[in-house]
Amino acid sequence: MEKIAQKVYSQINNDVYNTQGDIWWKPDSVLHLLKTSINPWRVSYASSVLKKLNIDPKEKTALEVGSGGGIMTEEICKMGFTTTGIEPAEESILSATNHAIVSGLNIKYEKGTGEQLPYPNQSFDVVFCCDVLEHVCDLPKVVSEISRVLKPGGVFIYDTLNRTFISKLVAIKIWQEWKRWAFMPPNLHVWKMFIKPDEIKELLSKSGLEWKDHVGSKPNISIPKMLSFLRRRTKGEWTFVDLGKNFRLVESNDMNILYGGYAIKK
Ligand SMILES: C[S@@+](CC[C@H](N)C(=O)[O-])C[C@H]1O[C@@H](n2cnc3c(N)ncnc32)[C@H](O)[C@@H]1O
Fold first, then answer.
1. Quick one: 180 exposed, middle or buried, by C-beta within 10 A (0-12, 13-18, 19+)?
2. Is the beta carbon of 76 within 6 A of some atom in ligand 1?
3. In a domain, 65, yes or no
């Protein structure tokens, strides 16, 4: 897989992460669904990987690439890692920093992109990149940078969106475009930037990372129910808080939309 064409990358709205105000931690905001609806699945998967590999986060260093407002970073820190988050959007870094202080969590947030990580080779025991790979301009560079900053034997844990007919229908049409149900801003995601599992496997291998596992996800409710919940929100009967209370992802073999995985640095 190559670097994404500029005319495709120019379509994604990554400016949304540089919006002033609390776009991450205000319970009635779309990005807070990362905490209420996505964290249960991805944090549980990450914990199971670390357990399987007998990694005790205490005395280990972790980096989250594309840490946004710190919704995943705080979970990483709570696991016990000495935690750093790197993120290009200054407003998101501000939001993350303020929330960590209020939560009494010691997290180092820095400005930067995955394409150019400002760390020496072999700096971290674990690197996380959650819901970010489908947002970056140069995916091969980001994966090679992650590999570079990982210690030998270190672990890369990620999740991203697959490029399938079903992901186009659900993640683009239903979640973003069709007004009856849409709850995400237009162009938050661009389907052509989604990544097939075989493509990520190829990139990992080219960067000296040994791919180990992929896991799928599905909603905790049926698709008709999900649509009826989304409809309640667009009609104004429900807020994002109601959505987050009633809808979350659970582990599944279905990799058509959001999937996670991990690899080990050789
Ligand atoms: C969907 S948010 C995920 C935030 C966080 N990882 C989480 O899951 O809570 C995507 C994030 O990727 C960041 N991002 C976009 N392009 C990036 C790049 N080239 N390198 C690193 N992060 C990037 C955005 O600024 C945004 O904060």
1. exposed
2. no
3. yes
One-letter amino acid at 151 equals K
User: In angstroms, what is the span from residue 237 Cα to ligand 1's centroid?
Assistant: 30
- Residue 41 beta carbon below 6 angstroms from any ligand 1 atom: no
Find, among 104, 103, 105, 72, the residue nearest to 87 by Cα: 72
Q: How many domains would you assign to the chain? A: 1
For ligand 1, whether the C-beta of 260 sits within 6 Å is: no
Q: Give the pLDDT confidence score for residue 95 in this predicted structure.
A: 97
| CB-based contact 69:99 (threshold 8 Å) | yes
pTM for this entry: 0.98
What is the Å distance from ligand 1's center to 132 Cα?
5
What integer pLDDT is reported at residue 35 of this predicted model?
Answer: 98
Q: Specify the pLDDT at position 69.
A: 98
Residue 169 lies inside a defined structural domain of this protein = no
Considering the domain boundaries, does residue 236 fall inside one?
A: no
Q: Residue 182: inside a domain, yes or no?
A: no
CA 141–ligand 1 middle distance (angstroms): 15
Whether the CB of 114 sits within 6 Å of ligand 1: yes
What CATH number does the domain containing 108 carry?
Answer: 3.40.50.150
Model confidence over 97-147: pLDDT tens digits?
999 999 999 999 999 999 999 999 999 999 999 999 999 999 999 999 999
Range of the domain at 80: 6-164+188-219+254-265
**Using a 6 Å cutoff on CB, does residue 66 contact ligand 1?**
yes
Question: Which residues of the chain form beta strands (DSSP E)?
Answer: 61-65, 82-87, 107-111, 124-130, 150-161, 209-219, 249-252, 258-265
> What pLDDT score does 261 carry?
98
Q: Give mean pLDDT, residues 149-153.
A: 98
| Ligand 1 mutation pick, 25, 87, 158, max ligand atoms within 8 A of CB | 87
